[in-house]
Design brief:
single chain, Rossmann fold, 8 helices
Length: 231
């Protein structure tokens, strides 16, 4: 990519997408294309087509996805399968139709069989059963990888897939009902520290920003503390 290439980062507000944008902009890339969910719905093909027609991106970094931890995957399997299929199919097809020079698709380590040998190797893909708790999400990601490879074989595109694993950091999801384990642990440690110091105003602010605080985290507070903090 050249410093003035038009680069579309899909999902630029998420954990990975925002990190990509920070890196690109810190290195001087001046034409990074960003669209928030309120501006474009990647599940709608017409929205994606309009974006590509208007912005004419040369490169696409596809970090947009419906993501979550085990509880969220178990609770909303349709969302994790159907919505991700819509997002990636729309963006990948539009990238081909508008002749982008390269596309990077973000997969997931859950695409590999649950009992695959360790450390994981690429050739283990599709050699066994997936982990049941996140199988719909894994199937969607596998479909995205296969779609990229299919375009490369049939049309000579340069669509690549990478598997980021165990990610956490700024702009992660810290909702204790839907987050991944690392983000949930970080938030629980933070909440426990605030509770031990009696920083209940800070806990209330945390709850407004990142989602409900489960009763177990404040169940052992004394009566005076509970009188002040009652989520």
């Amino acid at each position: 990519m050249k410093i003035d290439s038009r680069i579309y980062v899909a999902g630029h507000r998420g954990l990975v997408g925002s990190a990509i944008v920070r890196r690109l902009e810190s290195e001087g890339y001046s034409r990074v294309i960003k669209r928030a969910h309120g501006e474009i719905d990647l599940e709608k093909g017409e929205d994606v087509e309009a974006l590509f027609a208007e912005e004419r991106p040369e490169y696409v970094l596809l970090a947009a996805a419906v993501v979550g931890g085990i509880h969220a995957n178990n609770s909303y399997p349709v969302d994790f399968l159907l919505r991700n299929l819509k997002i990636q199919n729309n963006v990948i097809e539009a990238a081909w139709r508008h002749g982008v020079k390269g596309l990077l698709f973000l997969g997931s380590s859950c695409i590999y069989p649950s009992l695959a040998p360790q450390p994981l190797r690429e050739e283990y893909l599709l050699t066994g059963s997936l982990e049941p708790t996140n199988e719909p999400y894994a199937v969607a990601k596998i479909a995205g990888i296969e779609l990229c490879e299919a375009f490369n074989r049939q049309y000579g595109t340069r669509f690549m897939s990478v598997m980021p694993t165990n990610l956490y950091g700024p702009n992660d999801n810290y909702d204790l009902e839907s987050s991944h384990v690392l983000a949930a642990l970080i938030r629980k440690f933070h909440l426990a520290k605030m509770a031990s110091l009696g920083e209940f105003d800070a806990m209330e602010m945390d709850e407004k920003c990142y989602g409900p605080i489960p009763p177990a985290l404040y169940a052992n507070l004394d009566a005076a503390s509970l009188a002040r903090y009652s989520p």
